[in-house]
Design goal:
- With 368 residues, the chain is α/β, with parallel strands linked by helices.
- Helix content is 47%, strand content 11%.
- It is built from 13 helices and nine strands.
- The protein has helices at 67-78, 84-93, 100-113, 115-127, 178-183, 200-206, 214-227, 236-254, 259-285, 293-303, 305-308, 322-338, 344-362; strands at residues 41-43, 50-52, 130-138, 140-142, 152-159, 166-172, 190-192, 209-211, 341-343.
- The strands form three sheets. It has a five-stranded mixed sheet. A two-stranded antiparallel sheet has the order 1-2.
- A hairpin with a 6-residue loop joins strand 5 (152-159) and strand 6 (166-172).
- Helix 3 crosses helix 13, helix 8 packs antiparallel against helix 9 (259-285) and helix 9 crosses helix 10 (293-303).
- It is extended.
Amino acid sequence: SNDERVCPHDGKPLAEIGEVTSEQLDIIPAKIQVIRHIRKQYACSCGQCIKTAALPPQPIPKSLASPGLLAHITVSKYQDALPLYRQETILKRIGVDLPRATLANWMIQAGNLIQPLINLLRDRLLAYDILQMDETTVQVLKEPDKTAQSKSYLWLQRGGPPDQPVVLYDYDPGRGQEVPKRLLEGFKGYLQTDGYDGYNAVVAVNGLTHVGCMAHARRKFSDAVKAQGKEKPGSNAYRGLALIKKLYRVEKQARKLKPDARHTHRQRHARPVLDELRSWLDETLVQVPPQSATGKALNYLHNEWDKLIRYLDDGRLEIDNNGAENAIRPFVVGRKNWLFSASIKGVNASANLYSLIETAKANGLEPY
């Protein structure tokens, strides 16, 4: 104020010498707007000819859903794990009454709309020679010949060129070996999975090279250490976990290298650790009861050994299947919120929409 712009020492007015700027973050709450399309009509004086200007292309004809609204609802559900019933409530707060059934129908139609893009992504995925897979459960209420409480599965595939990765989800009512055979028809190269036997058939039929997941082996030894109640540095579980951790330290160093250099680095640093791990495994396996936590970890390591060391063959390969597990995690988080899909149409649409969003994220794109 003017009163404050006076020097307390000699009473002279203060002169402006600069300014100090500070910032805060503010947010503009969501608001809804109506887009109105006004189309001119033209008629001939003969009374037999009336023409109306064409409506701009719409994702869902004759509906209230603009592309932006569809994208907002899709991202809120499949990226931010907001179930449709919560979105219905949120929309009501800003003055829009959109029933949950309408939102669900829009999601099914949006999932169908992007099918051509999903097909192109699948072509790109299967054309590259490295692919990771994982699967998780999903509940679908209305399935032929199945109860509402029964489990179905969402299958995850992650692959494609390193600079243009592809992430695809697929629904199937079962977890049998026929599903990977169907999804990987025509694929050749390396298939990386966990230890589930359901992948063995497609490996044999397609002549694939099966790569294992060291993270699963590490997890089993970690569980064995926890089962002891406290860490015992001299125990077999602790020894196995320590050797696997050494392999991951090598991977941390190799991660920033180009594939050829990574291959050389692994041969020099990881192979000796694996040789030590194998010698220790052969010596220890016969000494530990197979039903104990440590015994289960040792047997997993033994049974999966050939697959677990496969990553040494090619610098492009990963030591574990964590890429696929990380890609399937958003679905697992979402499932805790929306719990189930009502129909097969709904779960297929969800698979497509998850695929689009996760592929966008993997390529550094904003999902919306």
